[in-house]
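Thread: quick sanity check before group meeting

JM: Hey all, I'm pulling together slides for Thursday and realized we never actually wrote out the predicted structure for the chain we discussed last week. Dropping the sequence here so it's in one place. If anyone has concerns about the input, flag it before I start.
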Amino acid sequence: MFRIANGTPTTIWAMFEWHRPNCPDGGNWEKKGWWMIPPGQSKIVYGGDLAQLQACSYYYAHSANGTQWSGPFRELVPSTAFDWCSSTSSTDARWVGMREICTGNFNNYTLTLTP
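JM (edit): ok, ran it. Output follows.
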């Protein structure tokens, strides 16, 4: 399981992308968001065994005060809640830059986002 914890004083919204061979749209990745995470709380963004993914995963988050946790890996995401394969898009989609995280042989992992 992969959990994102909010270590900031403001609400954050997060998305997560993981390796999923043969996703229904023909791609090999699934992306899901937006989890609203109040200060001091956390959400499980992937419920499976991380070790079985045998790959790095990706995340992006932004806070109510404008802080972003972003990186160089670009992905299209909508402004509303979603559960898409990597090739899925819509007219309200926008590009975000995701950060890569490799969890190795961990079955469970918590990522705490801080200012």
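AS: nice. The chain has one domain: 2-113. The mean pLDDT is 93.
JM: adding both to the slides.
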